[in-house]
Design a protein that fits this description.
Layout lengths: L1 H18 L1 E16 L12 E15 L3 E12 L16 E12 L2 E8 L21 E10 L2 E9 L6 H7 L13 E10 L3 E16 L6 E19 L2 E16 L2 E20 L2 E10 L8 E2 L30 E13 L2 E11 L10 E14 L2 E12 L1 H7 L10 E10 L2 E3 L1
Parallel strand pairs: 12-14
Antiparallel strand pairs: 1-2, 1-19, 1-20, 2-3, 3-4, 4-5, 5-6, 6-7, 7-8, 8-9, 9-10, 10-11, 11-12, 12-13, 13-15, 15-16, 16-17, 17-18, 18-19
């Protein structure tokens, strides 16, 4: 009898598993980089940077009629960062990148809870930042509704840490994690409607940043600074022609190194045109204006694109809005690109960008320079190889902006990289 119960239990378990869908896949992505002016002007006396990093991910998904579950584990390893026979990861880079469950509530409603990637539209304000080996995630709860080509997401987050367990357990919820616009609270509403050739979305976002009273020792939590970002993304596609536009404003208060400031008149405007000239040639052109700071102390009119995939915009060399350029002179970016399909398995992207400040530097200069980006992609059986080269032709304003005189700067500012991408599917 016991054997029969065991067999019956196994059969029921197999039946339940058959009614669900389990996936298991991974990613192995080593990238070699030569940095000689990546992110900022390199002085002539400085040596170029060179190194290799690897992102390794293991992703598991489980889907039933009632819910979805997803878990993504990752480690970002710089080759040689650990000494030999070290029994632990010296860089402490192993992390749970995603861990969420989405519950089906019926009638088009669902809720998604946990650590997750939040990404919308062209990823200008919210994006997964997949170029960075570590990626970007959020600990949040979403209430979602979708019906045909209409969707609404309501997102809520309340951030906490255990670096001050006494404060967390007994006397409050002060959030001590700072930097890179880490928020204490977040609330947003995202709506999108799509039609045959046109789609439009609206984002209403509020971020609360922890304030501290620095006049006492130890510093104590003193409310939050709330920054609102409001805007729209529009897309039109008809045959070979495509148009996309972004329009966002920011208002409220934010925390900078100098303390809390009022945000007034901050904006981002962008327009991009794409055209499929032939079956093998795609062309693009666009313009983006991001407001800089022209306010007195205690105020700012500088826009910052927050949690977007900023590497995708304003040049691959990351001179702007990638951990830098906050509360600065803004940006006026004019760009043009061509994407060539060389064969069934290879393509080449060529992009040129001209940069100026939206505001003047102290010298009155606005011109910052021109960047050229090249990306070659080759697909093999089961994996891809991607090669990139970028060159910055700096103008007078760039040297002033980055704090390196032209006389002391290297004559060549460039960056090259090679990346292997393997995404095995173990179970599908």
């Amino acid at each position: 009898m016991k054997r029969q119960y065991v067999i019956l239990g196994l059969l029921l378990g197999c039946l339940q598993f058959a009614q669900a869908q389990f996936t298991l896949d991974g990613e192995f992505r080593p990238r070699t980089e030569y940095r000689h002016g990546f992110g900022s002007i390199i002085p002539d006396a400085a040596d170029a940077g060179f190194g290799i990093s690897t992102r390794a991910r293991l992703n598991a998904g489980f889907t039933t009629e009632a819910y979805k579950f997803y878990l993504s584990l990752q480690d970002v390893m710089v080759w040689g960062e650990n000494r030999q026979i070290l029994p632990y990861d010296q860089n402490n880079s192993f992390a749970v990148f995603e861990a969420w469950a989405e519950l089906n509530l019926g009638s088009g409603f669902s809720t998604k809870l946990g650590r997750q990637v939040i990404s919308y539209d062209d990823q200008r304000i919210f994006g997964g930042l997949d170029w960075a080996q570590q990626g970007r995630n959020h600990d949040a709860g979403l209430i979602k509704y979708k019906k045909e080509k209409f969707m609404i997401d309501l997102g809520l987050a309340f951030s906490q840490d255990y670096s001050n367990p006494t404060g967390f357990v007994n006397t409050g919820t002060a959030y001590n994690t700072t930097g890179f616009f880490s928020y204490k609270t977040m609330q947003y509403l995202y709506l999108k409607q799509a039609w045959e050739n046109f789609s439009g979305s609206l984002l209403l976002l509020n971020n609360g940043f922890q304030n501290f009273d620095t006049t006492v020792t130890p510093n104590v939590a003193d409310g939050t600074s709330n920054l609102q970002t409001i805007g729209t993304h529009l897309e039109y596609k008809n045959g070979s022609l495509g148009l996309a536009a972004n329009a966002f404003i920011q208002t409220g208060k934010e925390q900078l190194a100098a303390g809390e400031v009022d945000v007034k008149g901050a904006y981002l405007l962008g327009l991009d045109l794409t055209y499929k000239a032939t079956a093998k040639v795609g062309l693009g052109a666009g313009i983006e204006i991001i407001s800089g700071n022209d306010k007195a102390a205690g105020e700012t009119s500088a826009f910052f694109p927050l949690y977007g995939t900023n590497h995708k915009f304003n040049g691959f060399m990351d001179y702007f809005y990638v951990g830098n350029h906050a509360n600065s002179i803004g940006l006026f970016d004019i760009h043009a690109s061509a994407n060539f399909t060389l064969s069934e398995t290879s393509s080449l992207l060529v992009k040129a960008l001209n940069f100026s400040g939206e505001q003047e530097l102290a010298s009155g200069e606005k011109s910052l320079g021109t960047e050229l980006d090249l990306v070659f992609t080759k697909k093999f059986k089961g994996y891809n190889m991607v090669l990139g080269y970028s060159h910055m032709f700096a103008a007078d304003g760039m040297y002033e902006l980055k704090g390196v005189t032209e006389a002391n700067a290297s004559d060549t500012q460039n960056w090259a990289w090679a990346m292997l991408v393997i995404k095995p599917k173990f179970l599908n």
